[in-house]
Amino acid sequence: RVLQVYGMKRSCIVDSASLCLFASQLTSGIVVNIGFVLTFIVPVVGGRVVRGAVRTLRLGGAALTQFYNELLRRLGVELPSSSSVPPITAARNLKERSCETWPTSLGAHLGHSPFALSRLVSRGDAPNLDLLMGSQIISIGWERFLPAEILFDPSAVGMEDHGIHQAVLHAVDAVAADKSYASTPGLCAQLLERVVLSGGTSKIPRLHERLQAELKDLVASKGRAPVQVKVHPSIEGDHTTWFGASVLAGTSTFAEHWCVHVPTEIQDGDNTDAQADDNDVDVDDDGDDGEYHDDGEDDEFDEDNDEDGEEDEDVNSEEGEDDDEEEGEEDGEDHGVHDVVDSI
């Protein structure tokens, strides 16, 4: 019906996590999508999401903005606001302009919890940043590193979730425990080499460096064999899936294996309800895993972007080729992502 209503000649429905990997020229890896409300840790192997290994954190860009707004208020920082610009919007804009990630544990660097505010503000070594907000200049020191710290230590502000580095390792272990991948040697090491950030909040400077350092330390603390850990920075922030879609669409085998062509009768406008029903594409998108439904709202680290984010643009369909399955068996072709991944 999408093809009919919008007059498209063809359509392709792909899981957004796979598209994030395609944007980095990868087909397997762990996607860390930091959205507006939730953060999804999504393992992908050969272009297919390992649903049983997906991890969800109830932590996203909105929580960081709210924390930053309250933090600045407690420190006596008055943000310019008006009837058209509420305080939370001003706090979000300031977060986008000032927040950074300390490359290692900030608590270890400071010698005390970074959330001990009285000790934090009394330090004389703050890396101050002066910003012009409206007609006033606001000077921000260590506090601008605290929102990113929450991603690695949510318990410091009363949240029960794991840090994103811990969730990544849990997801990797869940893939290893999946019987479907038990015979794949070196899969865990391969996934840890291909951690990809996406979402608006992933654009916080140096976040990928910190996640990489935390993952290395966590793996070592578990007494595991040394592995290469590599975290790929977000390429386009909350537009990563769009970028990945353009990469996928540019492959030589894309049209042959992925496009759903509109029958001639529909293109000519000679269609009935019966014909439309016959030509519907059945996409399995019931999201019955209970966690990852591929519809999480994405945070915008760019104040000009829509808060709904990119995730709403992509419909999960890693198994959406059911209607073509019999035809694929007859002509010897499998209509799945893994048919085109080699060309990326």
Automatic annotation (TrEMBL):
Compositionally skewed regions (Acidic residues) per UniProt: 267-333
Annotated keywords: Membrane, Transmembrane, Transmembrane helix
Gene3D superfamilies for the chain: 3.30.420.40
Pfam families from the UniProt entry: Actin
Compositional bias (Basic and acidic residues): 334-344
PROSITE patterns linked: HSP70_3
Residue ranges of the TM segments: 30-50
Location of the region described as Disordered in the Swiss-Prot/TrEMBL record: 265-344
InterPro entries assigned: Actin, ATPase_NBD, Heat_shock_70_CS
Similarity remark: Belongs to the actin family.
Protein name: Uncharacterized protein
Organism of provenance: Coccolithus braarudii
